[in-house]
Every structure is written in C-alpha cells, then in structure tokens.
Specification:
This protein is an all-alpha fold. The chain has one domain: Orthogonal Bundle (Helix Hairpins). It is built from four helices and no strands. Helix 2 packs antiparallel against helix 3. The longest helix has 17 residues. The two termini are 26 Å apart.
Length: 86
C-alpha cells in the first residue's frame, strides 16, 4: 500500500509555513486522537498518519529530503534516497 503525500495528509500546501503545518497537525491530532475515539481503528490510523506526516514536515532536513525524493527520501525501507545503496 502506498503512502499518501504528507502535505495531503495534513491538508496544507507545499509552501506552507511551519506554523501552518503545526496548526493543521494539532487540529487533526485532536480530532483523531485515540482517547477521543476509543475502539476506532480508522481514527487511530488517521492519527498515526498525521503524526508521521508532522514528524517529517516539521523537521527542515527531513522536509527537504521529502520534497526532493518523496517517501524514498525519508523512509529507509524504500531505499535509493540519500545515503541509499551505493
């Protein structure tokens, strides 16, 4: 299963500011947090997806790698990105 674009997950544009990314993440985290949605696997999955997206887009180096290489730039299991086999 391919991952969704992190900007799409958070509902922000590629040129979004750090503040916009943080606001969007917090809104989604509140909405889908497991404590607010007990026994809701879909909400838990959406919470985890938003958390992962925020972890990448809130870090300048990881965001740059994602912008350049997509998921391959930030997920070692994709290989071939920066520091990949070679």
């Amino acid at each position: 299963m391919s991952k969704r674009d992190y900007y799409e997950v958070l509902g922000v544009n590629r040129d979004a500011s750090e503040e916009d990314i943080k606001k969007s993440y917090r809104k989604l985290a509140m909405k889908y947090h497991p404590d607010r949605n007990p026994d809701n696997a879909k909400a838990e999955a959406q919470f985890k997806e938003a958390k992962e997206a925020y972890e990448i887009l809130s870090d300048a180096d990881k965001r740059a790698a994602f912008d350049r290489y997509g998921h391959a730039g930030v997920d070692p299991s994709h290989g071939g990105g920066p520091g990949g086999p070679g």
